Fold this protein.
Amino acid sequence: MSTFSGFLDEIEYVSIDRFTQLNFRSKAFFLSHCHTDHMIGLNEINSEVQLPGSLYLSEISKVIVQRRYPAVKNLVILKIGEATPISFAISECDEIDQSIGRTSVTAIPAGHCPGSVMFLFEQGNKRILYTGDFRLYREDIEGIIALKKFHENINLDCLYLDSTFLSLDYAYFPKQRESINTIIELTEKWLEANPKNICIIRPTAMKWRKLAANDIHYESHAEVPNSYSVCYSNHSSHDEIKFLIQYLRPKIVKLNVVPNNVCQKNAMYGVLDEITKEYQTDEQKIDMEVQESKCIEYNFHRITSIATKSSISLEKDEISLLKVKKRRRI
Ligand SMILES: [Zn+2]
């Protein structure tokens, strides 16, 4: 579930995957894909309240948005792989930095659901990649032309990352094709046994911790005959995320899916540090730590103020973990 605010720290006046009133100070809008946690605010749009700028999206997402939110206007289709200049809705009285006139965006397939894309923003020397939700394998990533330059010689300034499975518990998932083949095999067997049998399909990856490459990625349930769980993921595994980060070598990585639980959150940043330390310079490591400590500080103040206001007692472990983390960052 995305926890991203919609704003990029590096490029002003854009909002991605968030369309609340708070985002209305932006002058161009972007939708990575049509899942509800990425479309927050679109349901509030009507004939009187419109987004104050165009909404850039893929061709498939446009069809879905038009059906689901017909009141949303100014939809602009991005061609895959093509750098497109962004048109900001600027009025004469807006006093804004002229550099925004030189901003482009490239949509890159994200492999998450129909129409899902990543956005590569380029403004002068700044280059920012927002992944949205993604499921890409090593060979997919190596084949994306728009990303090759970051692997070869150009710096990616910041990667806004789908961190849903940034945990060693989810190091490996079977490829989607393998999972689909398993689902087909199991359903065929069941339907052949009796033409009156029916199938209900609910694939999931969340329960599949500690899976390895040669493990069987489905299991039957003794309590419900002919009921199986199949591991199927629309988000990349830890190992796939690790490959993307180390392939692109971004100076800074910011996480789009951050758990509320402090221990889980710290563990996630620990995993990220392990991945980035293999290529980052000392200067970049410090920048990353500053970014992470901002996040930890924010969390510390938020939790302690909630606890004070509502007399919730924090677990001792949570407080000491926060303090340890703060000390380490300082
Ligand atoms: Zn999604």
The radius of gyration is 22 Å. The helical segments are 59-68, 138-142, 145-152, 176-193, 238-248, 262-276, 282-310, 316-329. The first helix runs from residue 59 to 68.
